Amino acid sequence: MAHFGFENDVQSLLKLDMPITNAPMARWQRKASTSTSANTSTLSPSKSANRSVSMSKTPSKTPGKNGKNQSTPSKAGGDRFIPVRNAKQMDVASFLIAKENEPVEEAAASSTQTNQKAWSVTLNGCDLEEAKILHLTGKPLNAPEGYQNNLKVLYSQVPTPMSLKKSRYISSVPERILDAPELKNDFYLNLMDWGRLNVLAVALSEYVYLWDAALGQIVLLKKMEEENGYISSVSWSKDGNFLAIGTSDCKVELWDVQCQKRLRSMDGHRARVSCLNWNDHVLSSGSRSGLIHQHDVRVADHHLFTLRGHTQEVCGLTWSPDGRYLASGGNDNLVNIWPSAQGGAQTAMHTFSEHQGAVKALAWCPWQSSILASGGGTSDRHIRIWNVNSGSCVTSWDTQSQVSSLVFAPNYKELVSGHGFAHDKIFIWKYPSLAKVAELEGHEGRILNMALSPDSSILASISSDETIRLWKCFEKDPTKKAKPASSSIIQQHIR
């Protein structure tokens, strides 16, 4: 019987569903009882209240094994995550950064790359070079085999054919220098012109010389008969067979260059003839009196009419390429545009008064017949571009120097300006951007006149230093064909 009693006692102890009377209260029971008592009981003393609240909270610090306190979050997600950094990984990373910029021999390069790849795979589980999204150095990654790269190139630094085209070379040294002794240093005179037959006419005091640019020969064409007289202007006809000469004794002479013979002398002016220009068979002459005469050289009664628009000397005169307009500039700072109507009283179509100095430099644009360039004297120094159809100034810029001559270079669509005080240089401007292309230096005095060769490849400049300099700046493009020479219109009708 005692044996059976012992077994019953052991079984009763082994049953887990029976309540344990001596065990501590469960945590959920303590929380439930604490919250219930805090909500239902009335707390009067302050000390007991603080005590009950402090007992209801979970301790924020628990003692550690070493006697130090370790902080635990008061609620879930309250603290930041601090990753654990392996010291070995930091050492390897520092080593790789230090070794990246050191020179590596070609023999050891392959082994070093293999070791770096092995370390990367061991430490990170993959090769970091293959896992990079952006490569700051080196060549771009190619798409793996079997994949298509749909990225397009948005910008390329590959030079285009236009950017490969180099600007032409412009020599700063003249091709040839000719002597011009006893040249009259007068800003208002036009003493040089280059004809269509490649002959350069130059007036030196009382003489007129012809220089054949092809043969290099010099011919004395005229000498003034009057004492103290001088040549004040020269101008070639369009075909290059006849030369008009203005003199200080108020005359306009017409010479046949082939025969070296004076064909006629035309009177009418009351002062020196300082500028001349041709429009087919009509010769225009400007005088110091401010008057412009129109001559028909085919008939005996040569005088057609007189243009009155200047109060002082007319020092610039040029016809437009299409023969529709005549531009005149004077010492009165005016630029007048005259229509080409024949006969009757003439009035200026436009009068431009923006210049503040004498206007001698005038040039029509060969590829835009309605565009005129004008340059002012020492007190103005400006180059202005005009549209004669609208009568407006297209652009204007200060050259900081007296403008004595203007020439359009059609081979490269550029504008050439000759200057006096204070630069005494020749400037080449890109048209219409007006960017400076080159500066031609060498003259020791102010430039008085400029002229282009018949093929517009060589520029001639005459200066007060008594020299003529030839600048080979505008050689023609060999792909462009030369225009055939037109026959003379006035050759058979001149008397």
Automatic annotation (TrEMBL):
Bias-annotated ranges (Polar residues): 47-74
CDC20/Fizzy WD40 domain location: 178-471
Any GO BP: anaphase-promoting complex-dependent catabolic process
Q: Which InterPro entries match?
A: Cdc20/Fizzy (IPR033010), WD40/YVTN_repeat-like_dom_sf (IPR015943), WD40_CDC20-Fz (IPR056150), WD40_repeat_CS (IPR019775), WD40_repeat_dom_sf (IPR036322), WD40_rpt (IPR001680)
Residue stretches of biased makeup (Low complexity): 33-46
Give the Gene3D superfamilies listed for this entry.
YVTN repeat-like/Quinoprotein amine dehydrogenase
SMART domains of this UniProt entry? WD40
Q: Name one Pfam family in it.
A: WD40_CDC20-Fz
Keywords of this protein's UniProt record, alphabetized?
Repeat, WD repeat
Going by the entry's taxonomy, the superkingdom of the source organism is recorded as Eukaryota
PROSITE patterns assigned to the protein according to its UniProt record, in alphabetical order: WD_REPEATS_1, WD_REPEATS_2, WD_REPEATS_REGION
Which sections of the protein are WD repeats? 224-265, 307-338, 377-396, 440-472
Q: One Gene Ontology cellular component annotation?
A: anaphase-promoting complex
- What are the GO MF terms of this UniProt record? anaphase-promoting complex binding; ubiquitin ligase activator activity
Q: Region (Disordered): which ranges?
A: 27-82
> Hey, which family's this protein in?
Belongs to the WD repeat CDC20/Fizzy family.
Q: What is this protein called?
A: CDC20/Fizzy WD40 domain-containing protein
> Where does this protein come from, organism-wise?
Pangasianodon hypophthalmus (Striped catfish)
Query: What lineage is this protein's organism placed in?
Result: Eukaryota, Metazoa, Chordata, Craniata, Vertebrata
